[in-house]
Design a protein that fits this description.
Elements lengths: L1 E6 L4 E10 L2 E11 L1 H4 L7 H23 L8 E7 L3 H18 L3 E5 H7 L11 E6 L4 E8 L2 E7 L5 H11 L6 H9 L24 H13 L3 H33 L4 E5 L6 H13 L3 E3 L11 H12 L29
Parallel strand pairs: 1-4, 4-5, 6-9, 9-10
Antiparallel strand pairs: 1-2, 2-3, 6-7, 7-8
Helix pairs in contact: 2-3, 4-10, 5-6, 5-7, 5-8, 6-8, 7-8, 8-9
This protein binds adenosine-5'-triphosphate, magnesium ion and fe (iii) ion (FE).
Magnesium ion binds next to loops.
Amino acid sequence: LTVLGLETSCDETAASVVRLAAAGAQVLSSVIHSQIDDHAAYGGVVPEIAARSHVEMIDGVTRRAMSEAGLNWSGLDGVAATAGPGLVGGVMVGLSYGKAAALARGLPLIAVNHLEGHAVSARLGAETTYPFLLLLVSGGHCQLLEVRGIGDMSRLGTTIDDAAGEAFDKIAKALGLGYPGGPALEKLAASGDGSRFELPRALLGRKDCDFSFSGLKTAASRLAQTCETEQDRADLADAVQKAIARQLAERSERAMKDYAEQHEHRLFVVAGGVAANKTIRRTLEDLATKHGFAFLAPPMAYCTDNAAMIALAGAERLEKGLVSDIDVAARPRWPLDEARANVDPVHK
Ligand code: ATP
Ligand code: MG
Ligand code: FE
């Protein structure tokens, strides 16, 4: 199955063609136009600017993805587009473009939950089998999920306040780093030693798998004001990165223990933008090994937003016959464990 994927839920306009075969997924093309420069002056993503830029870019980005894949439209089996969650103005651009393309070419449309895209993204780099335990850490989400298959996931825990990526971004801003803050903070942390900073540890000893990052965010942002030298800032960045890694590991460890009691096939996957962080990847890999889990993270290029993960989720859905109505609506909010069928409850 060969599927075109479209992603426009935040500040990347992306299109990709993915082929799903018995041997696994093959990315034929993956084009990403980042709007970072459009939003940089505002210190964050401005929804109106994002939507307008998606309108300008979507056609060119899609044409490039098709030509880099060496395909014409008759070579496709379906068109997948992110239908939420995200900034609804942007989501509507990609979804409407996908609907038009599907209608014009007589192809099935597959509306994909953006988080489901992140959930399957590790499968773009390695052949894997379901089920697996997933830590999804992105700009807007921080969740532990049991993933039994496409459209069949349940949530074991979630953040009660901020997402990990959001904490990286806000603390980076307080440290005077640009947006997005995660990569910049990681770079700064490389020359730091955070051992002199004491940062709060949230939810210690709690029996569930929830997360909390707002206490850390507030404490670190306050400490950032007291930093005088570049070395002070690097030290704080290192402390923050380690504190975030530690909380992700503590909560994942709890989930692993429960999961291991119920499953023989033990695979732990981390996905989402924060999974690009090397300290976090290493910490989680060590933890997985310690608990007898195989470990998998997406190739670096597919951690942050991309359309290959949307094309793959679309192909997996298409394989199961989970296609969408052409009048499916964009959804600003859309919990992952409700991503079950083709389905937009609003229209059913
Ligand atoms: P969501 O998927 O929840 O809707 P999003 O699409 O904006 O949110 P992603 O693109 O998956 O999120 O990830 C972006 C986030 O990942 C940002 O918060 C960014 O700071 C963070 N991030 C990216 N690279 C790194 C890194 N190397 N270290 C830490 N954080 C990172
Ligand atoms: Mg982005
Ligand atoms: Fe994302």
